[in-house]
Design goal:
single chain, mainly alpha, 196 residues, two-stranded antiparallel sheet, 72% helix
Length: 196
């Protein structure tokens, strides 16, 4: 089994090794993680764009919101006839919602294995030693202290490096911040109606 994982590392090294080699700080490859997060964000955004009918999704979400508002008004008014009508419509709305949720899983299924392989490579490469020092405002706005508190409670998380400076984060948190930002930009550029 270790031969299989070694071959995965070899393939990933051939793909991401050149990026890592050209990083201005190869011992602390912040730029490499930024580029990888851009690639992953691009792949997932394109998959979402072409595997999910975005117009239908937006239409269904709007209908669901309108339905919920109407149902709430009917309950507040106490009109039993209107409540019964809305309850009858609820089944139809739930079926539509279920169909759209199934459609939203398509991109996740298509991109899950490649993303897991990228994570596996990052975990066992020089990327895993990255330390990013954030400005205090960004450190707190991105809720990093919460993750530093919760992280050690999760098996396999790994201890926070006690020698790392204050306001610092590791490779995984940096990747998450970069991916969130890149995804927002790409979704806006590609004309998505909803946010992340």
């Amino acid at each position: 089994m270790s031969g299989f994982f070694d071959s995965i590392i070899g393939v990933m090294n051939s793909i991401f090794g050149p990026i890592l080699a050209h990083d201005p700080t190869p011992n602390n490859p912040i730029l490499t993680i930024l580029i990888i997060s851009f690639i992953v964000s691009l792949v997932t955004t394109v998959a979402n764009k072409y595997l999910v009918d975005q117009k239908e999704l937006a239409k269904n979400q709007k209908e669901m919101k309108e339905f919920q508002n109407e149902f709430k008004k009917a309950q507040q008014s106490g009109d039993q006839k209107q409540i019964a009508k809305m309850q009858a419509k609820q089944t139809e709305m739930m079926q539509k919602n279920s169909k759209m949720m199934t459609q939203q899983f398509k991109p996740m299924i298509a991109t899950m294995i490649p993303i897991l392989l990228v994570f596996y490579w990052m975990r066992f490469s020089a990327v895993s030693h990255t330390v990013v020092i954030l400005p205090p405002l960004v450190y707190y706005c991105t809720l990093v202290p919460v993750f530093h508190f919760i992280g050690p409670l999760i098996p396999g998380y790994g201890a926070v490096n006690p020698l790392a400076p204050a306001w610092s984060i590791g490779w995984l948190m940096w990747y998450m911040i970069c991916t969130f930002g890149m995804s927002q930009i790409l979704r806006k550029y590609m004309g998505f109606e909803q946010g992340f």
